[in-house]
Design a protein that fits this description.
With 251 residues, this protein is mainly β. The protein folds into two domains: 2-48, FAH (SH3 type barrels), CATH 2.30.30.370; 57-250, Fumarylacetoacetate hydrolase, domain 2, CATH 3.90.850.10. The protein is 12% helix and 41% strand. The chain contains five helices and 20 strands. The protein is globular and about 55 Å long. The protein starts with a strand and ends with a strand.
């Protein structure tokens, strides 16, 4: 089931995709479930928004071996975690803005998940029960600032540096699906999510033993090799097979 957060006029609502339409839901699905309101709206008449505005975005670095190699880094025995602020989130169709502080902004396609219940100290075996759904993320990074700052906070946190969307897929099971990014139609990253060093259940469990995850929180799970500079005017497509394609333009 694909669940979209959308705006129509001044109102923000949730709906379930049904062909070219959205079945509008009552309230927030995490709180109210999937009770239809009785209204249907054409998808082409609404603006899709980021599926969640979380209390935090937890990110996993260095989770694909080929990406570790291209960065000249070494793997860690445990997942490498960092945070992005919720103010960095934009939705499908929104612009990614290049900050004047950086001359080397790059894309990073990632599988993302949204937490559906308070999550603390869960086991890998139980971890997927705490997921509301999966979506696509672009962990946009000012690579030159990442190097000059000697840590990752500023380089990952500019406004618009975390596009997510276009919706949540609630029935996705992470296995060996394709993950890919394209710039103006040209493939720059292509891998499969079974190439992750740490699996999705392992990541959720590890994060939950280090911080409490709240409903709506987002975890992004790492990027494959092929990180590439983006330039003003570029059309960026980030795709995870079975979830969807997130499209943004660089400005």
């Amino acid at each position: 089931m694909k669940v979209a957060r959308f705006s129509q006029g001044d109102e923000v609502r949730f709906g379930v995709l049904d062909g070219p339409e959205l079945v509008v839901l009552k309230g927030h699905p995490i709180v109210s479930g999937y009770e239809p309101s009785g209204e249907r709206v054409p998808l082409k008449e609404v603006k899709l928004l980021a599926p969640s505005i979380p209390s935090k975005i937890v990110c996993v670095g260095k989770n694909y071996a080929a990406h570790i190699d291209e960065m000249g880094l070494s793997a860690n025995a445990e997942p490498t975690l960092f945070l992005k602020p919720s103010s960095s989130i934009v939705g499908p169709g929104d612009n990614i803005f290049l900050p004047p502080q950086s001359q080397q902004v790059e894309l990073e396609v990632e599988l993302a998940l949204v937490i559906g219940a308070l999550t603390r100290n869960v086991s890998p075996e139980d971890a997927l029960q705490h997921v509301w759904g999966f979506t696509v993320a672009n962990d946009v990074t000012a690579r030159d600032l990442q190097a000059s700052d000697d840590q990752w906070a500023r380089s990952k946190s500019f406004d618009s540096f975390c596009p997510i969307g276009p919706w949540l897929e609630t029935e996705f099971i992470p296995e060996d699906q394709m993950i890919e990014s394209r710039i103006n139609g040209e493939v720059v990253q292509s891998s499969t999510i079974d190439q992750m060093i740490f699996t999705v259940p392992q990541i959720i469990s590890y994060v939950s033993h280090n911080m409490t995850l709240l409903p709506g929180d987002v975890i992004i799970t790492g990027t494959p090799a092929g990180i590439t500079k983006i330039n003003s005017g570029d059309i960026i497509e980030c795709e995870v097979e079975g979830v969807g394609t997130l499209i943004n333009q660089v400005a």
